[in-house]
Amino acid sequence: MRKSYRAGVPMLIALSIIVSGCSLGSEKTMNETDPPPVSYVDESVSFDSTVEETSKEMVSEMTMRELYLIDQNGLVAPQALQLPKSEGVARQALEYLVQDGPVSELLPNGFQAVLPAGTEIFGVNIKDGVAIADFSEQFKDYRPEDELKILQSITWTLTQFESVETVKIRINGYDQEVMPVNGTPIGEGFSRANGINMETNNMVDVSNSKGVTLYFLSQNGENVYYVPVTRRVNSNEDQLKAVVSQLLAGPSNFSNLLTDFRHGVQLIEEPRYANGVVTVNFNEALLNHIEGTAISEEVLNLLVLSLTEQAGVEKVAIEVNGDNKILMATGEFLSEPVARPLKVNSGKY
Fold it and tell me: What Pfam families is this protein classified in (predicted)?
């Protein structure tokens, strides 16, 4: 079983993004066993070439989808699960967010669906990047404190599809200007830019700040998975530098999230961006495996997931003291930019 520890970590790159008195100044780290599941496999590829023919046919009728569910800490987190192939993929994805629905037998330990039991999805109409999801009256049967979780779950589940950028809500065919219980405004639609698992302990001036989405680790028994959180940073801060700096600062002390960055990791120059690729150059402290000679899969994925969440970033190139040929914990060398995985948290539980 993995263990974690907490220790003080200095803010490695000076930022004016955190209000005094609400420090994030300690990190929680994980040890070096059991890398968390991240899939770089195309969903159309068969998952097991050694199974019997009947099993192959069953697999060919399934496909991987990211469902944003609620974990044991009350956070919205993606889980990539195999669902039956369907023509209405967006509608199907929402159906698998309903409590006591078809997802019940697939839920990983510690996870639960987010939409109220009995909710029907009448349809999802997608046009010009906007998905309009139409729900039944049962959609209203949720607790006020779950409203943002429901919005985030729906939005992030639907925006996994390339044709969807923004989500709007209907109930029984009627457009909704606000959410039905707590009145969250949704008339203009909801997108990933609205954030997910928003941190509230590092409150900054909202008018002079912007949100960046970061990925940290969470653990439930032997299961380890990635969780996105949105943190407010100074609006004048370079977006890519802010992402890396906040990753190095670690997860909030008020969460149960973890990181795998070692003490002393620093950027040794500003991130460089060109043609969809961001290059980040670190000191040797980035190498936290094999007696300080290799980068862990967790560190690699935390960087790639967080940076590719930013607009325009498709791949991440990692350097250590200017050298892009980096040994990975698997024994392979990383020498090319890394794209975002097709599915996050796709391991079997």
Answer: Germane (PF10646)
Residue ranges of the domains in the chain? 4-37+197-344, 76-185
pLDDT, tens only, 306-315: 999 999 999 9
Residue 7 CA to residue 26 CA, distance in Å, equals 6
| Nearest alpha carbon to residue 241 among 61, 16, 1, 9 | 16
Rounded to an integer, what distance in angstroms lies between the CA atom of residue 159 and that of residue 86?
17
The tens digit of pLDDT for each residue in 14-49 reads 333 333 333 333 345 554 444 444 543 333 333 333
C-alpha distance from residue 313 to each of 61, 62, 302, 305, 309 (Å): 33, 30, 14, 10, 7
DSSP run (H or E) holding 20: none
Cβ-based neighbour number of residue 164 at 10 Å: 18
Rounded CA gap, 41 and 12, in Å? 35
For residue 94, report the phi and psi dihedrals to the nearest 5 degrees: -70, -35
Q: Which of 251, 282, 280 is nearest to 266 (CA)?
A: 282
> Over pLDDT 90: what percentage of the chain?
73
SS3 226: strand
Burial of 45 (0-12, 13-18, 19+ CB in 10 A): exposed
Q: How much is the pTM?
A: 0.82
The CATH number assigned to the domain with range 76-185 reads 3.30.300
For 154-213, the pLDDT digits (tens) are 999 999 999 999 999 999 999 999 999 999 999 999 999 999 999 977 656 677 889 999
What span, in angstroms and rounded, lies between the C-alpha atoms of 102 and 154?
16
Q: Residues 340, 306: contact at Cβ < 8 Å?
A: no
Q: 173 vs 87, 109, 122, 135, 187, CA distance in Å?
A: 22, 35, 8, 8, 14
